[in-house]
Amino acid sequence: MTNQVKLVLVRHGQSKWNKENLFTGWADVPLTVQGKKEAREAGELLKNYAFHSAFSSTLSRANDTLSIILERSQTPPPKTTFNWKLNERHYGALEGLNKQQVTKEYGSDQVKIWRRSLDIAPPTLDKKDERYTRHQEKYAYLSENELPLAESLKDTLDRVQPYWETNIKPLLEIGKDVLVVAHGNSLRALAKIIENINNIDILEFNIPTGVPREYTFTADLKLLNASYLGDPKAVAEKAHAIAHQASEQQQK
Description:
Helix content is 37%, strand content 12%. The protein has helices at 16-19, 33-45, 60-73, 99-106, 108-116, 153-173, 184-195, 232-243; strands at residues 5-11, 53-56, 79-82, 178-182, 213-217, 223-228. It has a six-stranded mixed sheet with strand order 3-2-4-1-5-6.
């Protein structure tokens, strides 16, 4: 069929804190060797695509994943934009803590609420805490109101949706293919918008690291198909591992 347009979402490859099972949020941590491998594999799956534009967050694990994908998949590179509104959800006072240890302290039910509920944020970060984003020079241009102390998925959705409406969707509407490389929760927010996922089902929607999710639209932006690229069994196993990070230490 002709006159179709494609959007591809990719969650960054495994980061150091993914491997160590830590809450990451806005902390800027690097990819692991495995994460770089996942990015290369994503690039192989996307090597025949010709994206007009690419979007990413301001965090290096997503930026490096994007760079590796483009090295594998496309020359010349697309126009690339980096914006904090595609950053991971901010995990507040949980940032940098081990998920298993937090589960032992607060219980699995409470941790699941913090990780998977729509509108309940984790405990907030104190502004005096060294982890507060104001202490990072690259966010000096943001106002106090824009700097989160903790975010729920709804909070993340509230910053992602306007960015989608004003920056990404208009390109698709004029027939341009787009690549977005970001994070588990900012991409969950995008998926909720695009796929019209209800508030219950989105809680169990888990995006594996380094696996492209392709959306195909008609010329008037009606969704035709949404699916992961690659081996379905491997994708399902990775999604299951993401869902159970708080209770099971991943064996890598």
